[in-house]
Amino acid sequence: MKRSLGTRTEINDDGELAISVRNLHKSFKLPTEQSFGLKQAIFNRLRGIKGYREQKVLKGLDFDIKKGEFIGIVGRNGSGKSTLLKILAGIYYPEKGEIVVNGTLVPFIELGVGFNPELTGRENVYMNGALLGFSNEEMDKMYDDIWDFAELKDFQDQKLKNYSSGMQVRLAFSIAIRARGDILLLDEVLAVGDAAFQQKCEKYFEELKTKNQTVILVTHSMDNVRKYCNRAILIEDGKIAKEGNPGKIADAYLKLWS
Amino acid sequence: MSIPRVLNRKNRILLKELTKTDFKLRYQGSVLGYLWALLRPLMMFAILYIVFAKLLKIGGDIPHYPVYLLCGTTMWSFFTECTMQGIQAIVVRGDLLRKISFPKYIVVVSSTLTAVINMLINLVVIIIFALINGVTPSFSWLLAIPAIIELYLLSLGIAFLLGSINVKYRDITSIWEVLIQALFYAVPIIYPIAMVAETSTIAAKIILLNPIAQAIQDIRFSLITNETVTAWNYMDNHFLVIIPIIFVIAILIIGALIFRRKSKFFAEEV
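ok -> structure tokens follow
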């Protein structure tokens, strides 16, 4: 099965663009029946059945993101936002089109990636840090700050399975915000936690904004779009439906249901 | 993919941390913990020793037979563990693959490195046993290193090749489990190759050309006794030893190429 592929290139120059996307397409092959396994695959081949159906998720996206922009990407569930983010992050391959990423990119598709319930908080911090590219020595230096920020100091030698889900998120978040990159991709990561935690997130966002950090935020919170973004993109059915002023995009998003 | 990029700083950190985690998790929650890394192969050895050396009285002519057997079973366990862990690595770490972008070979290599650590610990035990058993230490011990590396590269090649198919067709894990059972008897670990040679020298030669057998016999030859029958000293034509070596290189290259091609879609398919 030969598949044609688009390209994703990483560069590092002084140009004003952080990300440029041209004619991006992506579709997934969804198994129509339980075609996992060799037996089914052979049967399907013999009967001439494909065994999957093609789901077009992104149907030709074009956009640019400048350095220092705080971009909001909004859209209904299933409109292709997360797929787009994963392609930008290099997790999925583009099927068609070109992507150029200028600078180092740090994705947060989910908080606490690689967290293991059987390991202690301490071990998980080092593991999660490694996934963000931090060495042991670098983690040693920020170790205390991470626990102070998460306000979980007393639990650092407990196994993660003994943490409440809120505590896990707090720990994951306080590691995540240490990550340094030219471009940050945030997927809905801040929709969790209690009021106090939400305040911390807001402070973090403010900080990103004042530092002119390039951020791509996928969210359903129109308050956040209005408050932090310089620009927003509304995705509908795998295409860009509207792009521009965050306030207008937020209104357009809310109108989708009226 | 150039070497400096493959081994860049970020990838090295990730490889180290994943290996550490794998190793910790393996013995998590067991009373004896890491000791199991030692106990498992020693127990397997004890069983095989009682059944084959004592009850069936095989291997009487081989000097230092108990250590010879232990060396064989340890290296076999290493091969089994490496391939089994390596083949399943992508599926086991599927969660990670779906959330961050990194070179996928790292999870395969990290999962096999746990087996490497276990093997090295056991190698120390073998050497202690060998010394107790009256084997004299010599520089020829160093010759075991290339043979161990060969065995590792073979395991890695198999892990890349079958691991990339296993993502879509999980049957591979089960098929390999059965195959490895069969392979165990095709390699002269519990029986001396001389036993086969009595009935058919051709069969003995074919068995020795299997890279697993060739590597394990070479390791025994350099560590335990130079009376070990190896592919090199058994073949009339020494040149034939190139066959298992070419096989290992071919598996590694084919495995790596297929893995590289398929790895682009692991995040979607796993």
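Chain A has a mean pLDDT of 88.
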